[in-house]
Structure formats: structure tokens, C-alpha cells
Specification:
Two copies of one chain form a homodimer.
Chain A lengths: L5 H7 L6 H12 L6 H10 L6 H13 L3 E6 L4 E6 L6 E5 L5 E4 L5 H10 L2 E14 H5 L2
Parallel strand pairs in A: 3-5
Antiparallel strand pairs in A: 1-2, 3-4
Chain B binds a DNA duplex (25 and 25 nucleotides) through helix 2 and helix 4.
DNA sequence: GTTCCTGCAAAGAGTTTGCACGAAA
DNA sequence: TTTCGTGCAAACTCTTTGCAGGAAC
């Protein structure tokens, strides 16, 4: 399975091409879990891509405005994390010890949200759910 | 129903008494929904309580370490919010328009968490859930 | 040729820290 | 008397902004 090229993704999102935008999209596509802006900047530096940090912020803003990424808040590390939007949105188990993020495959919120919309006079359009605890590796080592 | 005095709450949490700590606890106890550090500072100023902002940060740290408050992240406003811990933890419907936070009375996560602990090798100890959308007032006005 | 993206440096917001003084126990 | 909380100012981190040059279309 070959994924859409970053160049095409930019076109589809009606964003101008630039080397910097392509590189950041490439990096985000490789990630299996969300990363911080700091980690993103680190990867950029490791690969000698030479992208200014303020440019990274501006590009992430553009990606967010064009609905290409999700920026959420990771409580245990107290930092923002970024991920490309997936066809089906994801939730994570977050280990309070090693800070690892483990995706949950199915979003368990559908029924709950239906119920809330019925009971409360509120139109739901999104939600955030994170679950904290300890992963099997960290439980073993204690 | 009279709530425990802030002075007693401090004793129970094994924190030294101070005028500043008592005042902040008093303010937090009055709130029906979480508030930002900025809003807390505003209330302090309105009441001429004269508490330095760095002291507010230090006191909130102490409260958090002693498990007296919850500090979460409010996505629509992109800011931290603080609330006293309740006997039963709460989740909120957050209006993307007026930013109002509406508490949900019952946490709907129990069964979901049980299922996750069974399926995945992960010990759950906490979770965060926020639901975003539009409240009835804001729907009316559009 | 026009638009808009980028690098750089500087500014800004929010938060933390060192230190001396003062209050609580 | 000892411990520790507080105010103040300065430092620090993360993020945003203005501007001039350069790349995309």
C-alpha cells in the first residue's frame, strides 16, 4: 500500500508547495504516534533539513487550518502533540511512567455521545479522550 | 450543607496555613466550573487580596502535589483550567462558540475502561474526556 | 509579475527561580 | 527557633510577529 505523496496532499489541501512543507508532511506521515513540536524540530535537525523553528510553527498552523493535522495536549508530559489526521480518529493509552502512547483501535465514544445529545441540549462536534495508566513493560519493571 | 473550611482542608492535606492559601482555596471552592490561572488572578485582584502571581503558581503546584486540585487543558481556549477535586470526577461539554463548560453528571467511562483493561495489557489509573460542540444558547443565536 | 512562504531577529505571553524577609508551628 | 511560604525581579521557555528576500505559480 503506497500512501499519497506529500506533494499531492498539499495540492489536495490547496496549499502551495514548498520544500519545507513537503519535508514536514513526510516526517508526520512516518510517525505511528503523535510527536511534540520539539521532537519534530529534532528530526528536522538530524536530517539537516534546515527549517527555521518559526517556519515550523507557521506550517503547523497552516496544516491545522486546512484540517490536515490534529494538535492535542498530552497531560503526563504537559506538552502539545501533533499527528496527521487519520480516516478514523484515534485515542491513546498513555503510560504515566515511560510516556509511551498506545493507540486504541476503535473509538468507544459513539454510543456515549448519542446519549449525551439526547439527554442534554447540546450539539456534539468533537471530543478528546485520553486514558492514563501503566503499560505492561513498566508494570513488569517495578 | 456546610463545606469544610479551607483552614481544615489545608490541615487535612498537611499543608501549612497561610492567608494566601486559604484565599485561593476559598475562591476555588466557589467555582462551579474550572477556571484559568488568569481568571483566578483576576478574582484575587478584584478582592484586593494581594497575592503575587508567582505565589499563585507555587500554591497551585502545592495543591496539585497534594492532590487537592485537577489541572486540565481546555482545547477551545488553549489554556489550562483548574478545579478542586470532587468526590466523583467530572467531564465537561465545552461550547466551541461561547467556551462555556457544562458538567456531565455521570462519568460514562467505567465500562469502556473495564473493556480496555481486559483487551489491552494496560493498567488504567485515570482518564481525560472532553466533549466539544455547541450549546443550546449558541445554536439559537445562529 | 504577483502572491505568499521563509529565515532571521526581536517581541510577547506564560511560567519558573533565587534570594531576602517574614509568618507559621 | 526552625521551617517554610511569600514578594519581587530577573530568567527562561515556548510561541508569535515584522520585515526583507526568495521561491512558487
Amino acid at each position: 500500500m503506497k500512501s499519497t505523496s506529500s506533494r499531492t496532499l498539499l495540492e489536495q489541501s490547496k496549499l502551495k508547495y514548498s520544500r519545507q512543507r513537503e519535508s514536514l508532511l513526510d516526517i508526520l506521515k512516518e510517525q505511528s504516534v503523535p510527536i511534540t513540536i520539539d521532537q519534530l524540530d529534532e528530526i528536522v535537525k538530524q536530517r539537516n533539513l534546515s527549517i527555521n523553528l518559526s517556519t515550523i510553527y507557521r506550517i503547523l498552523d497552516a496544516f491545522q487550518k486546512h484540517d490536515m493535522i490534529e494538535k492535542t495536549f498530552n497531560v503526563p508530559t504537559q506538552s502539545y502533540v501533533i499527528e496527521l489526521k487519520h480516516a478514523h480518529h484515534r485515542h491513546y493509552l498513555i503510560c504515566l511512567d515511560c510516556k509511551k502512547m498506545i493507540p486504541i483501535n476503535h473509538c468507544p465514544m459513539h454510543e456515549i455521545i448519542e446519549q449525551i445529545e439526547k439527554e442534554q441540549d447540546f450539539h456534539v462536534s468533537a471530543h478528546q479522550l485520553d486514558i492514563y495508566g501503566y503499560c505492561s513493560d513498566c508494570i513488569k519493571n517495578h
